[in-house]
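ENTRY TYPE: paired fold submission
RECORD: A
CONTENT: sequence, then structure tokens
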Amino acid sequence: MSQKINNGDACGLPSRQPEVSPFSKKFSTGELPVEPNRYHYVWAKFCPWATPAAIMIDYTGLNRVISKFATYPLRHSGIDDDWFFGRDAADEDPVLHTTRLSENYKKAVPNFSARPTVPALIDLTTGGVVNDSSRDIMFELGGQWKAFFSEKVPDVYPDDLKDEIDSMNTRIITDITSVPGKISDADSQTEYEILFNQYFDRLEKLDQRLADRRFLMGDHITLPDFWLVVSLIRFDVVFYFKSKLNKKRLDDFPNLWRYAKACYQIPAFKQNSDFMAIKQHFFQVSDDPVTSIDRVIPGGPDLRRWEE
């Protein structure tokens, strides 16, 4: 996912796909049929790119018609170019019955030799990956699968707010979600400072926006909320330290902190937020023996405050 490979730590800015990719099929173009119980979503509990759709699937009720399963959060010892489905090499995804994600890429493209990435949407009729773009999957599920949303849930991608939602998504992904991955690739003080300021300038604006709003678009959750909350949950836990995004902590933004805690109490958000998996991936990275302080999992911050 990251354009620079860092000891198996591969949850950063997704690399650009070629214009024609076998993993970019969409429902909106007719390439994929909207058919319940045909698709399976592979994600990772640590990943800020894969987690938004996992939350949305549960929140909207799409989990009744689209199954999902998370990869093991650590790289297996000596293997930094694949995602396994469990601690042991023989552990399987219970739906796909494969042990590593590359098997499902190869079911779509037999000569596939690149690094498999999460998220990955898989067509169960073939077992092959059909889309691995986090943005595409969010937009496609949010826009093309409304007929299968729970009747109790307001539309997360309403037509009358589509342009505004698309714009807000872009701002969050550009200025928040992608910045930690870009910082890991920065090779100068100037580049780091530009990204640092970009990140905190956007947080300040979002904090102001939420001063008189319950959610980003108003009174109910829409697509940008999934993107933002996922990154906020990882801010103090990982990015404050690892990415040197340390100008302020999340609770220094009163409206963002209130908003993030309120969203976290919603079952779909809480049950897809695994703080230990997040720490394991970003700090420990792999299940090789820990022999240096940079791979030690931090004891803090105190996560009990998310329940207050």
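RECORD: B
CONTENT: sequence, then structure tokens
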Amino acid sequence: AIAKVDATDSKELASKYNVKTFPTFVWFEEGRDYEFNGENTAGSIEEWVVSMTGPAVLRASAPVDPPTGARPTVVLYAHDLLPGFEQAAKESRKKAVWMFVSTPGSNDAAKLVLSHPREEEIVLRGPDCGRKEKVLELFKENVVPMFGPLDDDTWDIYMEAGTRHKKGLIWSLFADEDEDGVEAVQAKHRPMMLEVAKRVRGKYYVTYTDTELHKDTLENVVGTAKFPAIAVQTSSGHKWKYIYEGPLTVSRITAFVQDVESGIVSPRLRSESERAGDTRSRAPVTRAVSTTLERIAFTPNK
């Protein structure tokens, strides 16, 4: 059934389901609501409806191919499709590809495998594979890869995960000097950035971005259009970014992150560039930019 609600008239209902923009599409199933977060086009809405009406868990046969898209693959190997696993899949069906492979033996020997492209598998074994809360706990901790793409498709996922788990964000901004494309660029730097991700695990998500496609956005949002660079946000969504433009090695990048956490590094604030001749004595107005504000406007006692 499809229902339409005038949210400007039914304000209490709109508030209950956190409706802030129009149109908003919400799917209701088994007492739960799932909001559509794709593009407001007929194709995207149709694709979403089809995905919500189909099974949350796809049946497959071993071996399951590794994931190739942005979403992880979560596979349950057990004698039966466990209800807790299926319920977890229904609640997060848009964030991963959920699959079931029937195997001989007891369900107590079940195995759950969560995979991201080009990364080590994360495995859960035993009865916890059938416990919804355990499956969702593992999934939410690993919903994004150790080193993954930050783009229009994954932005909301990183923001939600960072807010939920109180983690920051590290942007890897590499220049595509050979014009081979972002996937070739990230593959070149993946070993280094995976090691960085291991060292900051639990505190930060480590990402890469297509600097050619998003150059203007990066200049506005991050505050730099000079690549290569590393940008650090101590919490997802925080306006302050700390920019490192020095030699790119594991030790240099992790040392920079530690300096950010220690307060040694100042954030890069978006503003105009400093000009020759900007001084405190110029009248009637003294011009200050992000790199000179503290020196020009601050005094020892205020």
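NOTES ON RECORD B: The first strand starts at residue 26 and ends at 29. The radius of gyration is 24 Å.
STATUS: closed
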